[in-house]
Amino acid sequence: MGTVDTVTPLSPTPRSTVRRGAKRARTDRAELHAVLDAGLVGHLGVVLDGAPVVLPTGYGRRGDTLYVHGSTGAASLRAAAAGGPVCFTVTLVDGVVYARSAFHHSMNYRCAVVHGLARPVTDPGELLLGLEALTEHLAPGSWTATRQPDRRELAATALLALDLTEASVKVRTGPPADDERDLPGGVWAGVLPLRTEAGEPEPCPQLPPGTAVPDRVRYRGVTRSS
Amino acid sequence: MGTVDTVTPLSPTPRSTVRRGAKRARTDRAELHAVLDAGLVGHLGVVLDGAPVVLPTGYGRRGDTLYVHGSTGAASLRAAAAGGPVCFTVTLVDGVVYARSAFHHSMNYRCAVVHGLARPVTDPGELLLGLEALTEHLAPGSWTATRQPDRRELAATALLALDLTEASVKVRTGPPADDERDLPGGVWAGVLPLRTEAGEPEPCPQLPPGTAVPDRVRYRGVTRSS
Predict the structure, then answer these.
(1) Residue ranges of chain B whose pLDDT lies below 50
(2) SS3 A218
(3) Three-state DSSP class for residue B71
(4) Region (Disordered) spans which residues (chains A, B) (predicted)?
(5) What is d(CA B91, CA A27) in angstroms, rounded to the nearest whole number?
(6) Could you give the residue ranges of the DSSP H alpha helices within A50-141?
(7) Cβ-Cβ contacts under 8 Å, B108 against chain A
(8) Fewer C-beta within 10 Å: chain B N or C terminus?
């Protein structure tokens, strides 16, 4: 029982092949894109002096290239990420799975894990396209509605590109997977669904009173955080 | 402008000292606890064959010890994490910051980063306490309301302990930090607050019809995901 789903490698390399919970793997590239597009932040892992460093960062996608905002991390992180191996993970938590035993408590979620070598973006054209992807991912409509980066800002921006070649998606949905022995106990079991909701937009105090909230903010499709 | 906050090391080691955005650092240990307690999943980073691996996992806290559910990752991850250096990061996304320029778009968030050596929990007493912390973090009230782990389940559980000694907290709140030159443009700016909401509990199909949803589920304080 339990519509327990999958982890699937989208590439056959050992580290992106999910060994545990293989039922939860998804192989479809469209599903990888869907999870990445639905997230808001990801967690970028790099190795620094032999130890892992994991920091949250915004991102954007263009086809099978992921752009990560290098400047959201420390300078040391940027240095490590420029050309070194990275792991970028986006997780969407969809619900708390209440089981009849503590052991079978779980979460429903969608998770995309990308491995690869980060490539610093230096070409001015790609830098602009990458920043557009990043901005539009965070705030759809903002790239054209606000002032675009000038030369000084572009120079201050560290953007990393990551190929979506080596990636896996893991998904869990559905009710708990309880033991048969626990079914008769009368303990409630099921799923408490979770979703990210937007509240009322809070205008900047320096905005002239009465400035209308634009549709791109008011009706923003709320992506899921993590 | 921008009530831009802080990143603060809770310990003075180089890697937990936030170099960038030091205004956003927080030094208070209570704030570290608060961020960890408010999260639902964290991202555990380990080094595997020289490359970082970042996977989401549930966790629980007891004082200044964090317990992480080792079995949520691949066997290779468990192996790497047992005694090796790890980084555990919890991020709560509080809002999308809309600025008057693409460059100043941002997110409001709270983020806790913990560095350390993962210690596999083998003592039966600590294993139970750690699993209780983990279960109660995910599903408050479930530890006593559901069947607790038996010997077989305990044997199948890999639990890692991580000291909260070397940690930092980074927080951003408030409106965008726009350039003076962009203020007169008439572009809307502000914050779209985001929060995690629980939906209607979905009973397990194998539950006898009419089984009441317990208060621990119905009125669960919704923690924030990431």
Answers:
(1) 1-9, 12, 19-20, 72, 224-226
(2) helix
(3) helix
(4) 1-24, 197-226
(5) 28
(6) 75-81, 124-138
(7) none
(8) N
Q: Would you call B19 and A100 a contact, using CB atoms and an 8 Å cutoff?
A: no
Given this model, what pLDDT does residue A69 score?
83
Residue A9, min C-alpha distance to chain B (Å): 13
Chain B residues whose beta carbon lies within 8 Å of the beta carbon of residue A76: 15, 19
Q: Which residue has the tokens 């919890």?
A: B90
**Contact in structure between A139 and A219 (CB atoms under 8 Å):** no
Which tokens go with B52?
């970082």
pLDDT tier at A79, thresholds 50, 70, 90? low
Question: Which residue segment(s) compose the domain that B45 sits in?
Answer: 6-218
pLDDT at A32 over 90: yes
Q: Which of A86, A69, A48, A44 is nearest to B16 (CA)?
A: A48
Is B223 a member of any domain?
no
- Whether pLDDT at A209 is above 50: yes
Six-digit token pair at B37?
Answer: 């307690």
Residue with tokens 């830098």: A127
Q: Is the pLDDT of residue A201 over 70?
A: yes
Phi/psi for B225 (5° steps) reads -90, 170
The C-alpha atoms of residue B210 and residue B202 are separated, in whole angstroms, by: 12
Q: Kindly report the number of other CB atoms within 10 A of residue B226's CB atom.
A: 31
Tell which residue, A74, A77, A42, has the closest CA to residue B22.
A74
The amino acid at A113? V
**In a domain? residue B226:** no
Read off the tokens for A153: 């800002």
Question: Within a domain: residue B224?
Answer: no
Q: pLDDT tens across A137-176, in order?
A: 999 999 999 999 999 998 888 899 999 999 999 999 999 9
Best to test chain A binding among B152, B192, B224 (most A CBs inside 10 Å)? B192
The CA radius of gyration of chain A, in Å to the nearest whole number, is: 20
Inter-chain contact B52–A43, Cβ cutoff 8 Å? no
CA distances for B82 relative to A59, A88, A162, A209, B95, angstroms: 31, 22, 29, 56, 36
Rounded to whole angstroms, the Cα distance separating B116 from B162 reads 6
Average pLDDT of span A210-215? 94
CB–CB contact B73 A99 (8 Å): no
The CATH number of residue A63's host domain is: 2.30.110.10
Q: Per the domain annotation, does B114 fall within a domain? A: yes
CA atoms within 13 Å, Cβ hemisphere of A23: 9
**Minimum-distance CB partner of B74 among A18, A88, A186:** A18
B219 touches chain A (CB under 8 A): no
Look at chain B and report how many structural domains it folds into: 1
